[in-house]
Amino acid sequence: xxxxxxxxxxxxxxxxxxxIWLNRLRFRIFVxxxxxxxxxxxxxxxVPPQQDDALPAPVxxxxxxxxxxxxxxxxxxxxSHGGDLRPDPGQSWLRxxxxxxxxTDPPGFVWWGRASLSPGLSIEACDESVAGAGRMRIKxxxxxxxxxxxxxxIDQGALLRLLAEMVWFPGALLDARxxxxxxxxxxxxxxxxxxxxxxxxxxxxxxxxxLPRRIDAMRYAIERGxxxxxxxxxEMGDFRxxxxxxxxxxxxxxxxxxxxxxPYARFIVERVEYDRPEPF
Length: 280
Hints:
There is one protein chain. The chain is α+β, with helices and mostly antiparallel strands. It has a single domain (2-274), classed as outer membrane lipoprotein receptor (LolB), chain A (Clam), CATH 2.50.20. It contains three helices and 13 strands; from the N terminus they run H-H-E-E-E-E-E-E-H-E-E-E-E-E-E-E. Strands 6-5-4-3-2-1-13-12-11-10-9-8-7 form a 13-stranded antiparallel beta sheet, sandwiched between helices. The longest helix is centred in the N-terminal third of the chain and has 38 residues, at 2-39. The protein starts with a helix and ends in a 6-residue tail after the last strand.
């Protein structure tokens, strides 16, 4: 009986590996299909661009730096990154690798990431905002679904992430069809992003060098099926020139909790490419 059990287990392990490999492939195909859908979403009706004199001073200064060496507008972005992720305060950081795809008209993104839970076991996720609609899918070993969520709160969170990450294609921050600015003080300004009838607002803070360093907003946090608005932040740094644009290569996101800040994601950009609307 023991030998029979051993034989069954021995035969099951390769079959399980094949199943995980197939599900990983299916998940990857899903991500690629979502990216292609992102790049084929119809654009909004054109409007005149925002005039420089209508921009808050720190925004104008930043965009002059960020776009100074590129005249052609960006239509698509793709990047790959490394970094760390942790689901909850007190937990250890997990190594993560990911790819992200952006469209600029209308603005949207599709992100895929895989973090290692233990040797041979990983968690895989796809986060997106396409035509203003958000969706988050999470699977263990590409097979067991942990979450597949949509709805108004997911839309709002995904749009805030998109707004923070538009610094990777800063020209879109001038497109008044989607983004408008309001002054706040000498070193910050409020941005409003509107896509397909959905709207979010956040405050950008700019450093002494004129580059954005932080974004703050109220974002929905969803736990155990309940959602509530909480202070959320994103931080950016290590700006470098890529195809004539000055863009960050370090991004961090987190929640401002009563006990202090809780950063949950730290991404280091390894590659960023423009106007190649095709998956890696």
